[in-house]
Amino acid sequence: MAKACAITKKTSRMAGGYSNATRATQYNPTGKVRKYANLQKKRIYVPELKKTIVMTISTRALKTIQKNGAFATLKKAGLLK
Question: Which CATH number does the domain 13-76 belong to among 3.40.1010.20, 2.30.170.40, 3.60.20.40, 3.40.190.10?
Answer without folding.
Answer: 2.30.170.40
